[in-house]
Q: What sequence folds into this?
């Protein structure tokens, strides 16, 4: 079935297309062929959102701040959403809440008691700085032996492990 034939599909069942890390497409920007590939991709995506039968899909493009993307997709045809990370993330932000919920679930499935999980979350969640891949990586690191590996993380913070 072609995308143009999806008129009968209910809106909530239509696909969401995600182009992640578009600022990294095409290699280094100093490389002219990479830069051309990058600009070509963005021109294609812009044409895509302008075609009537494709406008019903949600196109999500993730990127670091990029002037070229902002010019290609001005506020008149897109919605820009800033997702905070690093020092910009504060307790109570949705990224922090999502990471806390994710780590709680992962630590619970490891069979850990709630008091220990609470202590671990107090240490881990702020260090994630809103970066979800950090949370998934640390959960994977902890999984084989959570308490011993958590001690490794804490000792590295204090500088006792070389």
A:
């Amino acid at each position: 079935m072609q995308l143009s034939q999806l008129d009968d599909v209910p809106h909530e069942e239509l696909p969401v297309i995600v182009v992640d890390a578009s600022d990294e497409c095409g290699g280094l920007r100093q490389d002219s062929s990479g830069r051309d590939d990058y600009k070509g991709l963005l021109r294609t995506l812009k044409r895509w959102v302008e075609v009537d039968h494709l406008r019903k899909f949600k196109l999500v493009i993730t990127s670091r701040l990029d002037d070229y993307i902002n010019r290609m997709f001005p506020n008149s045809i897109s919605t820009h959403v800033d997702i905070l990370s690093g020092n910009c993330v504060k307790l109570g932000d949705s990224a922090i809440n999502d990471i806390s919920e994710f780590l709680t679930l992962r630590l619970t499935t490891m069979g850990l008691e709630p008091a220990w999980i609470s202590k671990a979350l107090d240490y881990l969640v702020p260090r994630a700085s809103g970066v979800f891949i950090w949370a998934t990586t640390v959960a994977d690191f902890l999984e084989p032996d959570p308490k011993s590996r958590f001690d490794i993380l804490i000792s590295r913070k204090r500088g006792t492990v070389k």
About this structure: The helical segments are 32-50, 67-72, 94-109, 114-128, 132-142, 146-158. Residues 8 and 14 are 10 Å apart (CA to CA). The two ends are 58 Å apart (CA to CA). The first helix runs from residue 32 to 50.
